[in-house]
Amino acid sequence: MAQPENTDASGSITAHGKASADGPLPLPPSVAAGRLSHAIFRVARVHHMLAGQLLRRVGLHPSQELVMMQLWERGPQRQTDLVRLLGSDAATMTRTIQRLEHAGFVRRQPSPTDKRATIVEPTAAGNALRREVESAWLELEASVVSDLPPEEQAEVLAVLGRIEASLTRAATQPA
Q1: Could you give the CA distance from residue 57 to residue 79 in angstroms, rounded to a whole number?
Q2: pLDDT tens, 5-51?
Q3: Residue 101 to residues 57, 61, 69, 135, Cα–Cα distance (Å)
């Protein structure tokens, strides 16, 4: 699990690691310039790790469940639409779909109306995962919010939405 960071009396950022006679482990001074970014990185890493543990129980890896969720909710999709819906890139989506297909959870076929497009649809085995994936997501969400009252959950969602919008703007501006 991620270790929280603190600021010691000198203002240096520290992280609680394993108990040591010397106290908390110091983080590199360069982190001070990006404390929020570092915190987001740590939270995302631990969240991804826990999601991976929960999804392994059903034979999936993180992000594969997002593809399955789109297929369950929207039905068969063109692979290019999945790229757009999930904010992915074509190469990553191709690898994800290939892995899901190899596991027997989806099948791909040429579009009957556009031979350049590939349609992805869940198989019976893929549809059978739905309850288990939803259960894993409920467990993941419970872990995320276990110490947050509802008003703080709403505040966190609002702040994360603003952070995402800011990052999206920065990522789409020309270099």
Answers
A1: 26
A2: 444 444 444 454 443 556 656 777 888 788 899 889 999 999 999 99
A3: 18, 13, 15, 22
Q: Under 8 Å CB-to-CB from 72, ≥6 apart: which residues? A: 122, 127, 130
Compute the Cα dihedral for 121, 127, 131, 137 and give only its sign.
negative
Rg of the chain (C-alpha set) = 20
| Rounded Cα distance, 66 and 86, in Å | 8
Task: For residue 54, give the amino acid letter.
Answer: L
Report pLDDT for 89. Answer: 93
| Residue 118 contacts residue 111 (beta carbons within 8 Å) | yes
Would you state the structure tokens that stand for residue 156, as one six-digit string?
């966190």
